[in-house]
């Protein structure tokens, strides 16, 4: 029986012919990394290959590593297997990984979204025979409102809170979501303050994107300075002593999970904004169609439901287990921060 070009192993997605792993979750000799989130770029590999925009991100998060950066579409050979990286649109520097050998083409998406957020390189559909797709939001209930509408709602919410003399605290992952929010916050309303985890990552990305001015919250920051302004914080800060000292405040979370009211209740936030760095249902389906692939492998998310739907529509679709899912190890990031009030 022919060995598949890519195999799912206990260490990660493995290309045996090239002896290289894609986003492995256990230490390996050589890893091609799709993007900088902690579930996809882990510590301990001997050699990393990734897009050059992701190099400063994973170097910041992982420390001193042996890493090589590639351009979009730049082919590189490993043991006669041809690899290239293509925009995934998920966050800054996020890539799909194209793998080709003897005319057979596979594409591993990592995480991706089809809406252009204005800071990440927009998603690019790649023709292939086998497409490995996430399906984090692989249910028809997930249908995203256009970004500009959601961001206008966020700015209106902030303005209303300012008028009431309250601090607005907006939660988003420190890599990706926080910068997407920051880019479009209306500084005519007030000032933008940040938790240390977000401030540190934003400073890494400032050479790549023109972000508004931010002020890091420190032990010297007074509560009165925050009133009427907005604070960007990672989800792990919610309920901490760090946030309790900001009373009076109003909280909100920006996430695809805010589609469901129950998620907002569980996260104990006052407001939920539906804004995701992943595809919605229609984005997943249109992406798959554009690849022309007949074989679809579904990972992390609503895998069983989504793959069954694809099979009903004639695709050769199956699921594979991975250790992807949590975009950030936010607790670890927060522990590195000196941000306290």
Automatic annotation (TrEMBL):
InterPro entries: MBL (IPR050698), RibonucZ/Hydroxyglut_hydro (IPR036866), Xnuc_lig_assoc (IPR026360). Keywords: Exonuclease, Hydrolase, Ligase, Nuclease. Its EC number is 3.1.-.-. One of its GO terms (molecular function) is ligase activity. Gene3D superfamilies: Ribonuclease Z/Hydroxyacylglutathione hydrolase-like. It comes from the Bacteria. The keyword Coiled coil does not apply. SUPFAM superfamilies: Metallo-hydrolase/oxidoreductase. NCBIfam families: Xnuc_lig_assoc. This is Ligase-associated DNA damage response exonuclease. It comes from Maribacter confluentis.
């Amino acid at each position: 029986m022919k060995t598949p070009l890519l195999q799912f192993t206990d260490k990660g997605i493995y290309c045996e012919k090239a002896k290289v792993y894609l986003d492995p979750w256990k230490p390996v000799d050589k890893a091609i990394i799709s993007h900088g989130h902690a579930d996809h770029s882990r510590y301990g590999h001997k050699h990393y290959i990734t897009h050059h925009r992701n190099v400063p991100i994973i170097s910041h998060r992982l420390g001193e590593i042996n890493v090589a950066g590639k351009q979009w579409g730049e082919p590189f050979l490993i043991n006669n297997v041809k690899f290239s990286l293509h925009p995934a649109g998920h966050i800054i520097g996020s890539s799909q990984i194209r793998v080709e050998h003897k005319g057979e083409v596979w594409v591993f998406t990592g995480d991706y979204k089809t809406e252009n957020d204005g800071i990440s390189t927009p998603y690019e559909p790649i023709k292939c025979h086998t497409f490995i797709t996430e399906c984090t939001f692989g249910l028809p209930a997930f249908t995203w409102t256009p970004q500009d509408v959601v961001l206008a709602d966020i700015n209106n919410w902030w303005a209303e809170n300012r008028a009431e003399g309250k601090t607005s605290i907006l939660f988003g992952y420190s890599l990706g979501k926080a910068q997407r929010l920051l880019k479009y916050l209306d500084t005519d309303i007030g000032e933008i303050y940040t938790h240390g985890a977000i401030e540190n990552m934003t400073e890494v990305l400032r050479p790549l994107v023109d972000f508004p001015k931010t002020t890091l919250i420190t032990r010297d920051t007074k509560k009165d300075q925050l009133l009427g302004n907005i604070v960007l914080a990672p989800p792990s800060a919610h309920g901490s002593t760090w946030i309790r000292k900001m009373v009076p405040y109003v909280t909100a979370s920006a996430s695809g999970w805010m589609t469901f009211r129950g998620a907002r209740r569980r996260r104990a936030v006052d407001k939920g904004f539906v804004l995701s760095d992943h595809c919605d249902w229609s984005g997943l389906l249109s992406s798959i169609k554009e690849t022309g692939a007949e074989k679809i492998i579904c990972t992390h998310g609503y895998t069983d439901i989504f793959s069954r739907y694809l099979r009903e529509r004639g695709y050769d679709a199956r699921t594979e287990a991975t250790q992807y899912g949590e975009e950030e190890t936010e607790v670890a990031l927060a522990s590195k921060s000196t941000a306290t009030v």
